[in-house]
User: Which sequence fits this backbone?
């Protein structure tokens, strides 16, 4: 009887271990990660990554937001595991302003911003005294737009982490530089001389990037504008996050950028 009890106990233990092993395998094969994104940004890229993730045992669920602050807040409090919408500069400023602990976990792409011509303008030299130029009104992209106008030679700025129109020290053409909501910039081209428009907004509005009269130059200073995958610090080493990064940073993804977003430069293995 004792031998029978020992044998039964061993058999039960083996069965339990096998069941746990099977359960663990099922769990690992059905891992889910929530990714916060802005609208339909890079939809073709993500659609492909989602399909590749299924084959690799990772279920990727996109959670769509309309505001970057909301995406970072949701990442901070755990509503999403990782997000994909911002560059290093935006992340650093958000962390400072919100006492955040978000961390860049992987590079994605660099998207140079552009100056698009408005009414009666075909080149930068067409701009004349008193012309209106609209720029994004959110602090990060407003500062980037002003830096672009300084690079062109239209204005000079005093040193500021987040430049605003108040930081303009020289405006040789007395241009009227007006911050507006980023989503309204393309429509403003009908009435203003020019607009500084980020790549995502231009793409969503079907603006031809080749129509731009100036493109943000790429240099070592561009590193702050590289877009990233960002996660809460306690999620940075999560296996699912690492698997997502590996799926993203591939030649397949590069080929998709070349096909659908040729103005965006894959940045994870590129030196600027």
Assistant:
């Amino acid at each position: 009887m004792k031998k029978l009890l020992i044998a039964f106990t061993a058999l039960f233990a083996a069965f339990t271990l096998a069941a746990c092993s099977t359960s663990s395998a099922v769990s690992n094969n059905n891992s889910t990660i929530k990714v916060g994104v802005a609208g339909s940004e890079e939809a073709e890229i993500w659609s492909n990554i989602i399909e590749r993730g299924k084959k690799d045992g990772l279920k990727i669920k996109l959670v769509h937001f309309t505001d970057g602050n909301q995406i970072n807040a949701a990442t901070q409090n755990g509503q999403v595991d990782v997000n994909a919408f911002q560059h290093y500069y935006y992340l650093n400023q958000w962390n400072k302003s919100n006492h955040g602990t978000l961390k860049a976990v992987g590079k994605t792409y660099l998207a140079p911003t552009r100056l698009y011509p408005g009414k009666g303008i075909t080149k930068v030299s067409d701009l004349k005294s008193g012309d209106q130029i609209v720029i994004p009104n959110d602090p990060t992209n407003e500062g980037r737009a002003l830096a672009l106008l300084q690079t062109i030679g239209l204005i000079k700025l005093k040193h500021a982490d987040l430049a605003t129109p108040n930081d303009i020290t020289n405006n040789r053409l007395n241009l009227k530089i007006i911050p507006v909501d980023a989503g309204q910039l393309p429509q403003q081209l009908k009435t203003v001389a020019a607009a500084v428009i980020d790549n995502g907004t231009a793409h969503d509005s079907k603006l031809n990037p080749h129509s731009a009269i100036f493109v943000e130059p790429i240099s070592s200073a561009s590193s702050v504008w590289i877009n990233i995958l960002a996660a809460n610090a306690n999620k940075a080493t999560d296996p699912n996050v690492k698997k997502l990064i590996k799926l993203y940073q591939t030649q397949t993804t590069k080929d998709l950028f070349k096909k659908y977003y040729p103005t965006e430069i894959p940045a994870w293995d590129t030196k600027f």
